Amino acid sequence: MQRLTLGLKRPWALVALIAFTIVAGLWADRVHGWAGQAIVSLLVWAELSLLCYRLPRALGERLIACVWISGGGEIIASLIWGLYDYQFGNVPLFVPPGHALLYLGGLLIAERLPRRAGSVGPYLVLLVSAPVVAWLAYTGMDGFSLPLFAIFAAFVLFAPEKRLYATMFMVALAMELYGTAVGNWTWREHVRGTPFDTLNPPLAAGAFYCMLDWAVNLHIRIRQRLRGGTVPAAPATIPAG
């Protein structure tokens, strides 16, 4: 199966850079208003562009696909569906490349998990999260996480990229907690068009990254078919371990 980042040098330094970029960028966006948002957008796009230039081509193409797919998803989720609102009512330009950076960070972490942790960890995340999600749904505080968690569980149980999905579930939750605490965006209390209320943020928001990885894999497979290349039997990012 495809291993996208195992040949990279100093992977943990890159993880640290991604974490710093997200934390500092969201802080600057919140504290310095429109000027901060413009500067952060320029820097994040420059960072991702440099990474795509220097990383292996297959990984760079995946990150570029992630940018455009997540950008479309943001327009639908925030501006059309109204799940959450950014502080200025827009979708900041740094958000799509920021999704790609977080996705890259998840790949770097997941592919380096010890084999035993990679085998057991995803199921442990499911077991620990399930009763919390069920309780939040039962009390009505976060019913939206119930269908999101079902999507996450389906990916962990049936898809080959178990380590990536469990990793992204956790790191996305950490980013959501930070971003909503700082005030970069706010999830609306009621999910429009559904009977669900939700927290700010919903516990299972990381499920969106499972769908993002699926969409990126689908995009890559379609491109390979159009090029006449060999297509793997199923989308595969990380061995199930």
Notes on the protein architecture:
This protein is mainly α and about 240 residues long. It has one domain (about 10-225). It has helices at about 10-55, 55-80, 95-110, 115-140, 145-160, 160-180, 205-225, and strands at about 85, 185. Helix 2 (about 55-80) packs across helix 3, helix 4 (about 115-140) runs antiparallel to helix 5 and helix 5 (about 145-160) packs antiparallel against helix 6. The relative contact order is 0.15.
Question: What is the percentage of strand-forming residues?
Answer: under 5%
The total of beta strands comes to 2
* Order of the strands making up the biggest sheet: 1-2
Q: What is the oligomer described by this structure? A: single chain
Shape: globular
Count of domains: 1
Percent of residues in helical segments? 55-70%
Radius of gyration (CA) equals 18 Å
C-alpha end-to-end distance: 11 Å
Show unreliable segments. 231-241
What average pLDDT do the residues reach? 92
Class derived from helix and strand content: mainly alpha
Number of helices: 7
Order of helices and strands: HHEHHHHEH
The biggest beta sheet reads: 2 strands, antiparallel
Write the layout of secondary structure elements.
Layout (H helix, E strand, L loop, with lengths): L10 H44 L2 H24 L3 E3 L8 H16 L4 H25 L5 H14 L3 H21 L2 E3 L19 H21 L14
Antiparallel strand pairs: 1-2
Helix pairs in contact: 1-2, 1-3, 1-6, 2-3, 2-7, 3-6, 4-5, 4-6, 5-6, 5-7
